[in-house]
Design a protein that fits this description.
Beta-Lactamase, 15 helices, six-stranded antiparallel sheet, 4 domains, alpha+beta, single chain
Length: 549
């Protein structure tokens, strides 16, 4: 076969035969590469789309669940007020009105007494209702309340507002658990839609919320004419064939033709204890459009390369200098601070041995520099004795948490912990035992914060500090008291003559809601004052100061 080809094409010289087989090799390799690229790139884009849609739908489920939990918690809070338990209707109405005005996620808050009569309705012109003819004892949420249960109603169209509405209810019980009635909050579905529409993906992304029978509750997209009107809720059923697949598999990813007749990639998930289905879609055309464009460009490039390599001999010097140029570029990236820069060794498989050794040495050097950089940063933020955060890291962390609390108007608490009579302890047992004492206390504090958002550091000497973001004064005091007991429980002997005297700590707690007029130093000063009072009052105690939090 080879000799036949040589005769047919008149390949009589070594040079002509080398050129011929080089062209064949270039065509073959280019074709394999192009086919591999097309398959791999398409699969990669589809897989990435699957990951993005699954990530998005899981986030949406979390958003919906958190939103529902927050609404239920708001209603539960209203039911647990003492005025609700004592049926002080005027005060209850004022509380309801306050919540209705300042918490815009609930569109109405209603109290129904134990006889099923509406007594308070924030959506009514006369909020206090004394002569209602409507009896709601037959409602599912009322029956659940009579059994002492909270309830979240299916999405219904409210008669009062003509809008899709979700009802969150909780029973009201007196101090002796007597059933007094039910409080429910009505939230329009538009609040959920407003959250979901923010997570639409791409230009063709669509989100569909259906009930367990496949009727569409919400259909959201970036195209206005595709937005489902609220009065059409439950009027349209989703694609029966695809819905059967959704019901069977509960969650997953699929390619199918949607109600527009377009092929889409979609993920679906059963949410809210099986009561609803959530579907995320994005057009297949949008996902693969850039792929097809790249494939067209790649075909043109491949043809050009085949023609170019068939006509020209690429200079050896250019081949040798190309990896050097890549090495220079990578070095510049490292010089700019990108210490994770690496050169892919697979790119240089066909290069001379010396080039491969150079690339390998560069990658090893880059890895070493990056690891040393991480170790250096870690060492700069860690106290050398106790192995917890140091004062420098604490200062950085406090700036960050203070700024966040100021923006969100959340409380922030600070705890100063000082080991009692530590100088005397050092004088009695020596500095080595003093260091061991510091380490034990630090380990105890570190253990107490666990994986939470609390932060603990050594402030200096025998003093430690803990940052508690979003902790009010009461919560911070509880943590401080737990610290005091935990340190005492370590049973570190404090004196030589009395084995029952153990090391204790004095603790100062401060809580502030930051504003533009308060610097972060005010929190430190307040905690320091509390610590000073704790020590002045006899030590081994917690003193709390706050700014009305």
């Amino acid at each position: 076969m080879v000799h036949f080809l040589h005769r047919i094409f008149g390949l009589n010289s070594i040079v002509s035969r080398c050129i011929f087989w080089l062209i064949i090799l270039i065509i073959f390799l280019s074709s394999v590469y192009l086919a591999s690229f097309i398959i791999i790139d398409k699969n990669k884009r589809v897989e990435q789309t699957k990951e993005n849609l699954e990530y998005g739908i899981n986030n949406q489920q979390t958003m919906i669940q958190n939103w529902a939990n927050n609404r239920a918690e708001e209603i539960r809070l209203l039911a647990n007020f003492s005025v609700s338990k004592e049926l002080e209707l005027d005060v209850m109405a004022q509380r309801f009105q306050y919540y209705d005005e300042y918490y815009n996620q609930l569109n109405a808050i209603v109290f129904i007494d134990a006889f099923g009569k509406v007594r308070i309705d924030t959506a009514s012109e006369d909020m206090m209702i004394n002569d209602s003819d409507v009896n709601l004892r037959d409602r599912a949420y009322f029956k659940a309340a009579e059994e002492g249960k909270e309830y979240m109603n299916d999405i219904i169209v409210s008669k009062a507002s003509d809008k899709p509405t979700i009802i969150f209810s909780t029973p009201v019980q007196s101090a002796d658990d007597t059933f007094l009635g039910v409080i429910f909050g009505a939230a329009h579905l538009s609040h959920v839609n407003d959250m979901l529409i923010q997570s639409l993906q791409g230009d063709s992304g669509e989100i569909t919320l259906m009930n367990e029978e496949g009727y569409i509750i919400s259909h959201l997209s970036k195209t206005k004419e595709q937005l489902k009107e609220e009065e059409d809720i439950l009027a349209e059923k989703w694609n029966a064939e695809i819905f059967d697949k959704v019901k069977e598999e509960k969650s997953g990813f699929a390619e199918y033709k949607n109600h527009h007749g377009d092929y889409v990639y979609g993920t679906f998930l059963l949410i809210n204890d099986g009561r609803y289905y959530l579907v995320n879609e994005i057009s297949k055309r949008e996902i693969l459009q850039s792929h097809y464009q790249i494939v067209a460009v790649m075909i043109i490039i491949t043809v050009a390369i085949i023609i170019g390599l068939s006509l020209l001999i690429i200079p050896v010097t250019k081949k040798l200098l190309h990896p050097i140029a890549q090495l220079v570029t990578a070095t510049k990236r490292m010089e700019a601070g990108n210490y994770q820069t690496h050169l892919n060794p697979d790119t240089f498989v066909t290069r001379p041995l010396e080039i491969k050794q150079l690339i390998q040495g560069f990658n090893e050097m880059a890895t070493s520099i990056y690891e040393n950089k991480l170790l250096l940063k870690q060492d700069s933020n860690t106290d050398g004795l106790t192995n917890i955060a140091n004062r420098r890291y604490f200062d950085e962390q406090l700036i960050k948490e203070w700024q966040y609390a100021k923006e969100m108007q959340y409380p922030i608490s600070l705890i100063f912990v000082d080991i009692d009579f530590f100088k005397k302890f050092n004088d009695t047992f020596g500095h080595q035992q003093g260091d061991k004492c510091l380490i034990k206390v630090a380990q105890s504090l570190q253990y107490m914060i666990g994986q939470s958002d609390r932060f603990v550091a050594r402030y200096g000497g025998e003093e430690f500090v803990m940052i508690l973001p979003e902790y009010n004064s009461k919560e911070a005091t509880k943590v401080a008291e737990a610290i005091r007991k935990e340190v005492k429980a370590l049973k570190i002997q404090r004196t030589m003559d009395d084995l029952e005297k153990y090391v204790t700590v004095s603790i100062g707690v401060a809580t502030i809601i930051p504003d533009q007029t308060k610097p972060k130093e005010s929190l430190i000063q307040l905690a320091d004052q509390a610590l000073y009072e704790a020590k002045s009052l006899g030590r081994n105690r917690v003193v709390v100061k706050n700014d009305g939090c």
